[in-house]
Design brief:
Blueprint lengths: L5 H35 L1 E14 L7 E7 L8 E6 L4 E2 L2 E2 L6 E8 L2 E7 L7 E13 L4
Antiparallel strand pairs: 1-8, 2-7, 3-8, 4-5, 4-8, 6-7
Length: 140
């Protein structure tokens, strides 16, 4: 039977806990910095688009990209992506489908929206209206 020194296990657990605390603090600091930037930024543009995608039976969600023309978008703008209306499949309105997405300005006048749709066991054409809001941080 193998014996293990409990002190070594406790020391290893303490190190893992300290590393997790450091990582959590870094994530909290990043979230606070983003929040501060968003609050200091001015809303400078807003666009409404509809994500349209053919759906088939899928085993796992897949990430898609949608480039959106946004004439007022500048590099460095912060982008928020919000639902704008209810999604539909073949004219049937859905009530609980959520589009998980992020957006960023890839070049002047173009917003890249990355999104993932949940797995659906249905075939059809999905239309999901979204609103893109662009905030411009103050010049440094």
């Amino acid at each position: 039977m193998t014996q293990t020194d409990e002190r070594a296990m406790v020391a290893a657990a303490d190190k893992v806990a300290a590393d997790a605390k450091t990582a959590a603090k870094a994530a909290q600091d990043l979230a606070a910095a983003v929040d501060k930037s968003m609050k200091a930024a001015d809303l400078v543009w807003e666009y409404y688009v509809t994500v349209t995608q053919a759906l088939t039976v899928a085993l796992a969600p897949s990430t898609q990209r949608l480039p959106v023309a946004a004439a007022k978008a500048e590099l460095g703008d912060l982008v928020q992506v919000h639902p704008w209306g209810r999604p539909t499949i073949g004219g049937v309105t859905l009530g609980s489908l959520v589009l998980q997405s992020t957006g960023f300005v890839s070049s002047k006048g173009v917003v890249d929206v990355s999104y993932a749709l949940p797995t659906l066991a249905v075939a059809g054409q999905l239309s999901m209206p979204i609103r893109l809001r662009g905030f411009r941080p103050p010049a440094a």
